Automatic annotation (TrEMBL):
It comes from Prevotella dentalis (strain ATCC 49559 / DSM 3688 / JCM 13448 / NCTC 12043 / ES 2772). It catalyses: L-homoserine + acetyl-CoA = O-acetyl-L-homoserine + CoA. It is an enzyme of class 2 (transferase). The record marks 111 as: Important for acyl-CoA specificity. Coiled coil: none annotated. Transfers an acetyl group from acetyl-CoA to L-homoserine, forming acetyl-L-homoserine. NCBIfam families: metA. This is Homoserine O-acetyltransferase. Pathway: Amino-acid biosynthesis; L-methionine biosynthesis via de novo pathway; O-acetyl-L-homoserine from L-homoserine: step 1/1. The gene is metA. Belongs to the MetA family. It is found in: Cytoplasm. Its EC number is 2.3.1.31. One of its GO terms (cellular component) is cytoplasm. One of its GO terms (molecular function) is homoserine O-succinyltransferase activity.
Length: 305
């Protein structure tokens, strides 16, 4: 896919080395097409890593995408250079004036806090409400999925006795949905979280449908509003080494750091990870872009409602 990205975004050079076709803004302006407009609210602390992970997956369809990054006014990131934020991110107050074909809201390392105690909770609620009338389809990932389910539908989260950490087998429960086109009967999904949502709470809400789950990691995907909202409790966007970096970062610093399950070859960190989720990650993002964004969004983007 020709990805239309800001000039000098670090992900551009990284992905070009992976033979992923990206297009900077200068070249994109010479093409007479309407790109799909995607906005990413990136709440993860390592912004550049998350940008690259998401762009890598958005690159797998023949459609041209224009990717923009949103930041919060009520929170200042501590792990990303301010120069990067000023160059590539815009405040919600600026981006809210536009309409968007698709939106992705990432996870955040705040899941053990009550939602109401998160410093940017009020701004997040405003953004979530705005997305319903300004975006054709939105993916909510990990903490954002729990936050969206809570804000829109009153679904609570629950603390886990042990961190859900590793790669877990998932089963599509509604395999005929376009989001699962090309999927196998089972697929793998990375998880890294200390809280969970319960199936019975979701099933009590008629507007919600559990569409994938795991015997070990529980509910993994929930759909609402005919695919205008997807809530994904795991991290299909993770790169092969993400859980390894997290494990080594926390080892010896926390007393609740289990070896990530189903991740290392022979459960031996020295042998490195065995990647089992990448093909389905590419399929899911491609299916979302094609069937729930491109096929549903109006040509005149201002007609989104």
């Amino acid at each position: 896919m020709p990805l239309r990205l800001p000039d000098r975004l670090p992900a551009v050079d990284i992905l070009k080395k992976e033979n992923i076709f990206v297009m900077n803004e200068s070249r994109a302006h010479t093409q007479m097409v309407r790109p799909l407009k995607i906005v990413v609210l990136n709440l993860m602390p390592l912004k550049i890593t998350t940008e690259t992970d998401l762009i890598r997956l958005l690159s797998n369809t023949p459609l041209q995408l224009e990717v923009n990054f949103m930041k919060l006014r009520s929170h200042t990131p501590r792990n990303t250079p301010i120069e990067h934020m000023l160059m590539f991110y815009k405040d919600f107050d600026i981006l809210r004036q536009q309409k968007w074909d698709g939106m992705i809201v990432t996870g955040a390392p705040i899941e053990q806090m009550p939602f109401e105690e998160v410093e940017y909770w009020e701004e997040i609620k405003t953004i979530f409400d705005w997305a319903r009338t300004h975006v054709t389809s939105t993916l909510y990932i990990c903490w954002a999925a729990q936050a969206g389910l809570y804000h829109f539908y009153g679904v609570p989260k629950y603390p886990l006795a042990e961190k859900m950490f590793g790669i877990f087998r998932q089963t599509p429960l509604v395999p005929e949905l376009p989001i699962f086109r090309g999927f196998d009967d089972v697929f793998m999904m990375p998880h890294s979280r200390h809280t969970e949502v319960h199936r019975e709470d979701i099933e009590a809400v008629p507007a919600l449908t559990v569409i994938a789950e795991s015997e070990r990691s529980g509910v993994s995907m929930v759909m609402a509003r005919g695919g205008r909202e997807f809530f994904i409790t795991g991290h299909l966007e993770y790169a092969p080494d993400t859980l390894d970096k997290e494990y080594r970062r926390d080892l010896g610093k926390r007393n609740d750091v289990p070896l990530p399950r189903n991740y290392y070859r022979a459960d031996d960190p020295a042998q490195g990870p065995l990647v089992t989720w990448r093909s389905h990650a590419n399929l899911l993002f491609s299916n979302w872009i094609n069937y729930y964004v491109y096929q549903e969004t109006p040509y005149n983007i201002n007609e989104i409602e």
